[in-house]
Design goal:
By secondary structure, the protein is α+β, with helices and mostly antiparallel strands. The chain is globular, with a radius of gyration of 26 Å.
């Protein structure tokens, strides 16, 4: 239970520090669920902003910056141990200005201070604890600090006292070190430089098999995925592997096998919720058996798309396409069942913890013991399920039990048993306390979901998923996009946009999602909305020919990154903003014929050669975009009046694994070539201009590269054959 707030704690003013104006916790009116979790702390938290830093300058004290997010387990732990402790809070209030940041609302703040934390402490993660000068420069940092000293980790109170002493006794050295760190970060941590006013170099196709070779060296061939514990879903890398497998080459089979092992390993593991669908954030073990239980929109949107793409590719014997399709559909159903808000947008996450009896328990909703299985299923089925799903007497997570997971493909008899008992287990689980949901809507993550839902719906013949994607896109257009100012706001709460303008990643992910939605629906409004976002992004994030991740939302962040525009080229939990923008630019150029935007995509892909040959695991989306660029990408224009044949041709194109394929379908009559006029009042998509149906009015498909089209085709088999030939370079 949270400690009482300052107003109700009964502590004298001096216990919380000097009796300055506004000496209280200021988070109660914040819309962020994470900030509101701390509104009753005796710590006098303030939100990140100029006012907090001006207050620190006035008091001549450092800022203590604490960064986390609503679903974070260890954030809850540190809050309970330290931020709810009256004595610790009193010391913190007296000698610092405490500032709380929701990293999901302010990834620009999180990014720069994460880089500082890693440089200072050699580690990174959340909760993140950073000490700043009043102008925003970091001088000491760490992550979680315990309430009492542990081996190699001081207590939080020890840290506060040491920093306070250094601030008083060695101020010059502290400030000099902070300035030096900011200068070093400008050179080392934000060194991704993309000049969009210079012609890009030719993309070298050899870097893709080189990247594949390096990925193989870090692969875990037994459990799937890359690296050791903790292990995260490599979503962007998987998209590259699937695209590489779809383009005939000497390394295509290796890419397919590597993707299969990772997809199978995750799908059959505890990372994947075997009852309700969806994936946890990461596993603390290399074999995916002990997840960190928060379920994030951005992970599940990316994984939904990847599993649907694997089903479209056809799978293999390690991980069949039908199993991938089942995983994808359960993930989609979980997204819409658990994260969909009444306004049709998608919430950010479910918490890692479940509160039981006022106490946070990690993963409590998802854990089972042999006894709880018996109580739910009866002895016979319980014993079989416990064996099949790795539930033993000793809980793998805690005394509350273990997550259900087979860690292998089920036999036919096991599959039949599981289909019979799964609804019973899920119904029983729904009676338990459930994890809290963070209802914050993030524009970019909803853009990822638009792409995933639209493509999964088309590939797996689920029109309801396409309808859900359209509803999310409508929300983004109505709530997040200001057409008058041409600004996409990053976050909304309760259907009201607030806070900073979107970052490059928000514009990129939304544009990519809208182009995917256009390909599936043929509704021109989504193409034109994507076009608006891309044009706005080119204006907002390009200055003096150089691309940046943000438009300078904060003076303190600008100071902390050495007063240089920052561009982080590395994928993290989501693709980097630069990589996402390159992908959106490439698709948009294929639709529009814009040579300018194609060159911009090529300039961003100039980041790839050093990353692909040194760290391909953080360059997955750039690699996937490069694979699409090397494939053309192929452009497909479907022309002809609406009919069963036109729908069949359109569906066949959407189900093609051709890397980066863009699909445009002429809605309405569609039988005649035109010059851009549209009965609906919207300009026609350029790829569709000057194309006509067959002389007898039947629909046909134009396959093109760089807007140069081959002779039209009128049958599914002919289209599939020609796409295969184009992929082979014919």
């Amino acid at each position: 239970m949270a400690a009482p707030g300052p107003a109700e704690s009964g502590q004298p003013a001096e216990a919380g520090g000097p009796n300055w104006p506004g000496a209280s916790n200021a988070l109660g009116s914040e819309p962020s669920a994470y900030l509101r979790q701390h509104a009753d702390n005796p710590v006098f938290w303030r939100p990140f902003g100029d006012e907090a830093f001006a207050f620190a300058a006035e008091r001549d004290v450092p800022v203590f910056l604490s960064i986390g997010y609503a679903a974070c387990h260890w954030c809850h732990v540190m809050a309970h141990e330290s931020f709810e402790n009256q004595e610790t809070a009193a010391y913190l209030n007296a000698h610092f200005v405490p500032v709380k940041v929701d990293r999901e609302e302010r990834p620009d703040v999180d990014s720069v201070y994460m880089a500082a934390t890693q440089a200072i402490s050699g580690e990174g993660g959340w909760p993140m604890s950073v000490f700043l000068t009043p102008d925003g420069l970091a001088f000491h940092a760490g992550t979680y600090f315990p309430p009492i000293p542990l081996p190699a980790r001081p207590s939080f109170r020890n840290v506060l006292e040491a920093v306070h002493e250094a601030w008083l006794e060695r101020r010059d050295a502290v400030e000099q070190n902070a300035r030096g760190l900011a200068a070093n970060m400008a050179d080392a941590h934000f060194a991704g430089v993309v000049r969009l006013d210079d012609p890009p170099e030719m993309l070298d196709a050899s870097i893709l098999p080189e990247a594949l070779t390096l990925l193989a060296r870090s692969e875990d061939p037994d459990a799937g995925g890359f690296g050791s514990a903790p292990k995260f879903p490599p979503s962007a890398v998987l998209e590259f592997l699937i695209r590489h497998a779809a383009a005939p080459s000497d390394t295509a089979l290796a890419a397919r096998d590597m993707a299969a092992r990772a997809l199978a390993g995750m799908a059959r593991s505890a990372l994947c919720d075997q009852l309700d669908g969806g994936f946890a954030r990461y596993s603390v073990t290399a074999d995916w058996s002990v997840p960190h239980f928060e379920k994030m929109l951005y992970d599940n949107a990316q994984l939904l798309r990847v599993y649907a793409h694997w089903a479209r590719l056809g799978g293999n014997e390690v991980f069949p396409a039908d199993e991938a399709a089942s995983v994808a559909l359960r993930c989609a159903d979980w997204l819409l069942g658990s994260l969909k808000l009444p306004n049709a947008a998608l919430a950010s996450s479910l918490d890692a913890d479940t509160v039981v009896g006022g106490v946070h328990h990690e993963g409590a909703t998802y854990l089972w013991t042999p006894e709880s299985l018996v109580d739910t299923l009866g002895p016979a089925d319980a014993e079989a399920v416990a064996t099949m799903m790795n539930v033993g007497a000793e809980g793998t997570v805690s005394e509350l039990g273990s997550p259900l997971h087979p860690a292998r493909a089920l036999t036919g008899a096991e599959s039949r048993l599981w289909e019979r008992v799964r609804p019973v287990l899920l119904a029983a689980r729904h009676l338990r306390n459930q994890p809290a949901r963070d209802d914050k809507v993030v524009a970019g993550w909803n853009g990822l979901a638009v792409a995933a839902l639209a493509e999964a719906g088309a590939i797996l013949d689920r029109p309801d998923l396409v309808a859900a994607a359209e509803a999310v896109a409508e929300y983004l257009a109505d709530v997040h996009w200001n057409s008058a100012t041409q600004v996409l706001v990053r976050v909304s709460h309760d259907s009201r946009a607030r806070g900073i303008g979107g970052l490059l990643e928000d514009y990129a992910f939304c544009a990519d999602g809208l182009l995917a939605l256009y390909a599936v629906t043929g509704a021109k409004r989504w193409y034109h909305f994507a076009e608006e976002l891309i044009v706005a992004a080119c204006s907002r994030f390009v200055e003096n020919g150089q691309l940046a991740d943000s438009a300078g939302e904060s003076e303190q962040v600008f100071n902390a990154q050495g007063q240089k525009a920052a561009l982080d080229p590395f994928d993290n939990a989501t693709p980097s903003g630069a990589a996402g923008f390159a992908g959106a630019l490439l698709s948009y150029a294929a639709y529009s014929g814009s040579h300018e935007h194609r060159l911009m995509a090529g300039s961003i892909l100039g980041l790839l050669p050093p990353l692909a040959t040194r760290a391909p695991r953080v360059a997955g989306w750039l690699l996937a975009t490069a694979q699409a660029a090397l494939a053309g990408p192929v452009e497909a224009a479907v022309i002809g009046s609406d009919s069963p044949l036109r729908r069949e041709l359109h569906s066949a194109l959407l189900k093609s694994p051709s890397p980066g394929l863009v699909v445009a379908v002429k809605t309405g009559d569609g039988g005649q070539a035109d010059d851009g006029a549209s009965p609906a009042g919207e300009a026609e998509v350029p790829l569709l201009l000057h194309r006509s149906a067959a002389p007898d009015g039947s629909p046909q498909v134009y396959l093109c590269r760089d807007m140069v089209c081959e002779r039209p085709l009128g049958g599914v088999a002919a289209i599939q054959s020609r796409l295969a030939g184009m992929a082979s370079g014919d």
